[in-house]
Amino acid sequence: MKLAVITDLHANREAVEAVLNHAHAQGAERFAFLGDYVGYGADPGWVVDTVRRYIADGAIAVGGNHDAGVAEAPSPNMRPEARVVLEWTRAQLDADQLAWLQGLPLSKTDGDMLFVHANAFAPAEWEYIQGRIEAVRSLHATTCHYTFCGHMHEPKLFHLSGTGKAGDFVPTPGIEIPIPSLRQWLIVPGSAGQPRDGNPAACYALFDTDEQTLTFQRVPYDFELAGAKIREAGLPVRLAERLAHGQ
Q: Does the predicted TM-score (pTM) go above 0.70?
């Protein structure tokens, strides 16, 4: 089975549409969404409703910190511009959409796979996987061999051997990577809606569960239109500008 893993969609309709179309063209049979459906972008309602339709068809979904911030209250560590967007976003969504965001689980297990937005060791505290130390801590918190998490907007792959030896690397898009279950793996697909590694193309990952291979994908999209919508909505201009630079 080919599983498309998509995270940090951030209300970016143009990016999400491009990623979904690309994933279907690559033969994706199932989808997993790792949270932050809202925040930063100008199309929160469309993204929420789209993910809900995929869930009705069997997709997996967990919640992120921006989703919790809109449905409940923003984290005290959240930046001022993010808070502004969350207040705006809350006004764009109806009661049913807000209730859906509030009801999202923090993590979900499916067979030998764990799906979570931030990390496996303390999902509700939204700590980032900054490097090997946090990655190993996260892998030690689960018996699953495959952990998929978002929150970090840059693609990264970590692994841990049975003897405790850890490693990590930045993947090359489009290159199939063997990830056998002899090791534990932590996969950070990168952000679909707001990449931050200097490349504006949207990110996602495709996991072939039968072959145990992983491919990180980059998908060009109309970031100029997405940015124009942000400006038209009266949201912080910097949020539109960063889309063009992948920052």
A: yes
